[in-house]
Amino acid sequence: MSSRSISRILILIVVVSLLLVGSMGAVAQNEKVTVAVDAPPRTMDPHGSDADSNLSVMSNFFEGLLQRNTKGELLPGLATSWERVDRLTWRFELRKGVEFHNGNEFTWEDVKYTFEERLENPEVSEFISFGSSIESVSRVDGNDWVIDIVTTEPIPYFVQNLHQVFIVDKESTMERSQGDIGTKPVGTGPYVFDEWVKGSYLRMSANENYWGGEPEIQNAEIRPITEASTRLATISSGEVDVLQGIPVTMYEAVENNNSIEVITRPSRRAIYLGLGNKDELPTSSLKVRKAMYMAINEKELIEKVMFGHATPAAQIPDPPTTGYSDKIERLEYNPERAKELLAEAGYEDGFKITLSAPNDRYVQDEQIASTIASYLSKVGIDVEVDAKPKSVYFEEVMKNELDFYLIGWFDGSYDFGRSYSKLLHTVDAETGYGTFNGASYSDPVADQLYEVSKSVVDPDLRASLLQDLNRLAMERVAVIPLHYQEDTYAVRKDSNVEFTPRSDTWIVFKEMSLK
């Protein structure tokens, strides 16, 4: 029996159980809240991974100078106030009376240590590009509770990023081994670490000394389950209270289950196709890139592959992101015009290309890639799909050696300038530009416009410049946008958990409550 046949049988079993299982096996109220997620944390070191799945977990143990609520609004965190002093300097008033989980008092020296020594250390940090932008952290007039953070260059989105830059305890971090830091988190957050069995579960309990008040959920557990049907089975059986990521193929069955509440929200994550424009590639031609764009029937793809759970995208940034432009429209689906453009570019007989994609990262990612290949074949482009696990795939993306690839993105700092520097800027290992520019796309004109935008700190002017940069990128078809995903969650009604999904998809237990 083939693996695909086995998978179909598993899906049928899960669907039947969803339709039949009621409250059987429900988790006892108030005992513990368990959430099944689709991706595991890699480490308990808050600087060891900048992946959303890791930041989500870390937000329960650690805190930044600032934080965001479920709406994505920036709020005080370990800093109670902040202001820009000049183009390079930000001033923060720190929160008093905060303790780390080991009892150590939170002080300005913890901030200094985090920013000056941890963030830019390549042996421990994936925040090197942000860390290398820090010139100094110092007290203002000798006041231990007011600090200035000076950057090496103007960073307009600096404070927008601070909710995901977590502060560590200087004393214990310096004393412990990296192995210990990566397995036993010590932060100031609302939950203290209990136990982590990699690939199985992560348990935590409420921090009774939390400065924001002891959380209502006393005990919490995260279970990473990457296989969709297995993850879904855990909520139908009552093993978990909340599930992140309802498979679109089983959405209707979940929705029809009277014991489960379905919660959705528009996702910030855009799915798009990256393209190389090196001279030797067919995709170096703007006409070819436009042809490939116009050959894709995104409306049909959303209906048949995403089962309606996505919305068409015309650009990478989403509406809340600085630089999003509502004036950008998708190129129309027109396969006949696509063939004409290919002929005009000298490819009337088409060409061969490999489309690289993950098969376990985004909703229906491998199926999307296969559908794209089918659409392109109809205009004469022979596409071989190379889909593989994300653990292997993203290493290939970061080598910047692909020709054509599928990837997703939303910017945690809500800034297209930061997105451009990582996704589309000419690759530069020294500056960290182009980290996720998998095909080494390069546009010197756009790069120059980005450099201009970096030095502009006036919010309105910078927003206008980033919109110009965004429009330029899309006019030149730097990427082919596909759609924005939909964030989906399932909550067992008998768990009595009040849950509001966040715009960044993080699972933050202090924001949950019991009915």
Topology:
Blueprint: H1 3-20, E1 33-37, H2 52-61, E2 66-68, E3 74-76, E4 79-84, E5 89-94, H3 108-118, H4 128-131, E6 134-140, E7 143-151, H5 170-175, H6 178-181, E8 191-197, E9 201-206, E10 219-224, H7 228-236, E11 242-244, H8 251-255, E12 260-275, H9 286-294, H10 298-304, E13 310-312, H11 335-344, E14 351-358, H12 365-377, E15 381-388, H13 390-397, E16 404-409, H14 416-423, H15 444-454, H16 459-475, E17 479-492, E18 497-498, E19 513-514
Parallel strand pairs: 1-10, 1-11, 14-15
Antiparallel strand pairs: 2-3, 4-5, 5-7, 6-7, 8-9, 9-10, 11-17, 12-16, 12-17, 13-17, 18-19
Helix pairs in contact: 1-7, 9-11, 15-16
Quick recap:
With about 525 residues, the chain is of the alpha+beta class. It is built from 16 helices and 19 strands.
Notable traits:
515 residues, alpha+beta, four-stranded antiparallel β-sheet, 19 strands, 29% helix, globular, disordered N terminus
Report the radius of gyration as a whole number of Å.
24 Å
**Stretches with pLDDT under 50, minimum 5 residues:** 1-17, 19-30
Determine the N-to-C terminus distance: 46 Å
Q: How large a portion of the residues is in β-strands, by DSSP E?
A: 15-25%
What's the main sheet like? 9 strands, mixed
Residue share in helix: 25-40%
Overall outline: globular
- Taking all residues together, what is the mean pLDDT? 93
Give the number of helices: 16
Overall strand count: 19
| Classification by helices and strands | alpha+beta
